[in-house]
Specification:
Layout: E1 4-8, H1 16-31, E2 35-39, E3 57-59, H2 64-67, E4 75-78, E5 96-99, H3 113-117, E6 121-123, H4 132-143, E7 154-156, E8 159-161, E9 167-169, E10 173-175, H5 188-195
Parallel strand pairs: 1-2, 1-5, 2-3, 4-5, 4-6
Antiparallel strand pairs: 7-10, 8-9
């Protein structure tokens, strides 16, 4: 089943953290036979060369509300304050899964509040904050692989070794890979190591 995973890009810029997340979402969504859409992209924003539009990666300057104004009931907003959690059964009800931009701020900022006010139906991905690529990955596993949220292997707040004498705890939930490690975009660990002394606020 083909679905669309849409990130409403709510920032005038695109930081290195978000760029790596978007690249991971684009690659994994294409491999799953679905489409990744980046909406509300300012015309002045230059995307990196790694994010080239393709049949499975769509860049939209319009907002999600403009794109789906006649199909709002088919759009599911992944919302941390939604009453219902995402279920494999939601694959029958929704074609588009909407993420409110940078979900991975620490502390979490309610970046989905504007989208919530536009009347999209919401679903929750559990109680622990996720990065945007993790939220998209978990949603795809639930919807396309039909795996229940509580059956997905997670690792919460992993501690990453930055150097021989330094480590840092990531304040997010990740999908656990086959080696028991958090699944992260290619290049993310190197970015975290490089910029660890600046604080995560500079990475997004």
């Amino acid at each position: 089943m083909s679905k669309t995973y849409l990130v409403e890009h709510l920032d005038p810029e695109l930081g290195p953290w978000s760029s790596l997340e978007y690249q991971a979402i684009a690659a994994e969504t294409a491999a799953a036979g679905s489409t990744f859409c980046l909406s509300s992209v300012p015309r002045t924003l230059e995307l990196p060369a790694e994010l080239v539009p393709s049949p499975t990666f769509v860049v939209e300057h319009r907002t999600v509300e403009e794109i789906y104004k006649t199909e709002k009931d088919r759009v599911c907003l992944l919302d941390p304050v939604a009453k219902a959690e995402l279920s494999p059964l939601d694959a029958e009800h929704f074609d588009v899964f909407l993420f409110g931009g940078i979900l991975g701020d620490d502390p979490p900022r309610d970046r989905t509040s504007e989208l919530r006010q536009k009347g999209f139906q919401g679903r929750r991905l559990g109680p622990v904050q996720m990065t945007t690529d993790t939220a998209a990955r978990v949603t795809r596993m639930v919807i396309q692989q039909q795996v229940a949220l509580d059956k997905i292997p997670y690792v919460d707040y992993p501690e990453l070794k930055i150097s021989e004498h330094e480590s840092t705890e990531m304040p997010f939930r990740y999908v656990k890979n086959e080696n028991g490690m958090p699944t992260m975009p290619s290049g993310m660990l190197e970015l975290i190591k490089k910029d660890s002394e600046k604080g995560f606020g500079d990475l997004f």
